[in-house]
Every structure is written in C-alpha cells, then in structure tokens.
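Appendix B. Raw example, untouched.
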Amino acid sequence: MAGTGVSVSLRMLVLIRWVALTGQAATLLLLHFGFGFALPITGALAVVATSAALNIAVILPRRASARLGDREAALYLAYDTLQLGMLLFLTGGLQNPFAILILAPVTVSATILSRRSVVGLALLTVAALSAIALIHLPLPWSRGDPIPPLPPLYLLGIWTALVSSTLFIAGYIWTVAQGARRMRDAFAATQLALAREQRVSAVGALAAAAAHQLGSPLATIAVIAKELVRELPPTSPHAEDAQLLLSQSERCRTILTDLVRGRAGEAGEPFARLPFSALVEAAFEPHRSSGVPPPAIEVVFTVATDGKTLKEPELTGSPEIVHGLGNLIENAAQFARSEVVVTTSWSEDMVAVDIVDDGPGFPPQILARLGEPYISGRNGETAHMGLGIFIAQSLLERTGAHLAFANRPHGGAEIVIEWKRAELDA
C-alpha cells in the first residue's frame, strides 16, 4: 500500500496513547511511592502530563471518527517514540527493565503505515536507543542504596537486542500486514469485476427482453403500414407519410433483430443456454472489440473431443466464467508473438479449456506464485499482471474450476481450466 493511500483512525491512535499513558503514570507512582524507588518523579510525570495534554489537543478540534494520512500518523507515533525515550533517559536508560516498550510505536506503525514511514520510525527508534545507551540518568533504586554499574558489554548486548528487535519486528510485521492489505485489495477488485460483469449482463438481459416485448407491436405497426401503402393512391397527400411509416417500422425491426441476435451470443443472457465452445468465444468478444489482440495476433478457437459422440455441454454463461475466461485469453494475447490457440474439450466426466500462446512464457521465478495478487509480470515487467490472473482464477474457482499454469517445452505459456462436467451442468 502506497504511502499516499494510507488512512489511519485517529480514535485508535488516541486510545493506544491513553492506555500507554495510564500504564506509565501508574508504574511511576507505584515505584516511587509504593516501593520507595528514588525516581525523578516530577520530571517523569511532567513528560506523561505533556503527552496527555497533547492527546487532548489533538482530539478536541477533530471528530473522533477522523482519519489521519500516512505522514500525520507517522509524526504522531514519532512523538510517542521520543516520549518513551525521554522517560527512559530519566529512569536509567537501557538498564531500565521497561526499555523494551520503546518498540511499541514502531510495531504499531508496521501494521498500518507505508514502508517509508516504517523505515523512518525504525531509524528514529534506533537513534533513541543509541542516545539513551550513552547518556541517561542513573538507574533509580530504593532507599538510596547504590547499585553497581552494569558491564559495558552487557549494555552493548541490551542495545543490540533492542535494535535487532526493532528492525526485525518492523520488517516482519510490515511484510505480513502488507500481504494482508494486498489480499484484501485484490478480493475487493475481484468483487468489483464481478459486479461490473453482472451489471453488463443485467443490461443485456433487459435489452433482449425489451426487444422481445417490442417485437409484436412493431410487427402490427408494420402490417398496418403496408396496408396503408397499398390502399392509398399515389396522389393521396398521405401516401408519402405512409411510405415513411413503413420504412421506419422496417428499420426498427432490423435494429431489434440485430439486438436480439447480438444478445443471444452474449454469455450473460439469463434465458439463453449456449454450447460451451460458443460461450468461450463469446467471453473474448468484448476484448476483441476493444482492440485486443493487436492485428498481428490471431486468436484461434478450436474444439477437441475424445472421439466419442458426446453431446456438447450447454449452460447459461455466468459472469464469473465470462470475465475469468475473457481475462485469461486477453492476457495470453498480450504476450503472444503471433498466435493464441484456445481449445475447448469435453468428456463424460470433465470439461476443459486450454489456452496456449507462442510468447516468452511465464518467468520461472513467478510460475509457482501465479494466482497470487501483485506479482511481477512476464519478461521481468513489474506491472500488476498478477492481479488480473488472481481475479480470473478467483472468479473461475467460484464456479468449481481448477486452473493449472505451465510453460510449454518449445516456448510459450499454457493455462488449463477444468471443470467436473456434473458440476458445470448443474
């Protein structure tokens, strides 16, 4: 997720800070007054009070439901890092057992912010740890008893452990959170693609239904217009109007006929069951009309059976099948050198579509990851080719399909989509 696209709940950050400030104040008061540790209580509580005042100042001018951009949220967490660093400076630096809490702001940032902000906060945390490792007030102790200084090597170990934890936690959590965000965005894109395909299908169904309903009254108008043309003498002042009415009614009939024929070939037609091979070709038609593939690329549709006289499956094309197959064929056409061959086959048990192109094939390093969103494209391209394949695979798997991706021995890529015939017929 890019930095400019990050949106963080102000309520969440304010709540986290209130929890932290409550814990800090309670710990300081308990240690100083309950256990008798000689803390610089005035200075420490002043640091806590300053953060509380800032929390109030941040929330008052805004609604609790306000959201912060990436930069604002990063500055908010950066202040928390500096505040924790100041408390540790006053209470013994890295010798303080609570020094590990300085990792909290960078951990939070790794779950919600962009990479740049996480890196910046990690570097700020390392700088704060380095500063309090070298410069800090003595570790407070009860009853004023002196505490022997810790060996420098031990302090170096604590510093190394905290710095390593900062970098590891920030990197690991950010990677996991980024993967979750990408998957969420990819599923959202899948739902949008499906919704768009369903809207197109609904419009097509409405157009076909309208054409069917208008056919009868238009035929009646045409019959009456013909009678008028035949019965009116050429010298009648209405003869020209009758002829115009007849020609326009014929034109309307032609338009409706073309509309019905065109929609009958569309996979989204809810009351038209198509042969499966016709459905496969229909899925690619919108891409062909939009200029894919280029004129130099030929997309060939063929049919292959196992030699038995099996009836070809017929089904009502779902938006999932239409969009999924169309995307995969379009992807093959984009990378082909001259030809894409789409072979439809069926047997007693299975129905399959085999998409083969003569392009460079899938890069070996991403072949095993195909189906994941946001991976590099073919030929080392970093375009989000993976998102299109992810959407197509997700939609097709919703219909019971199984997809396999491979490179052919003599070059080119191959995608095989298979359904169990019983599931597809159902």
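End of appendix B.
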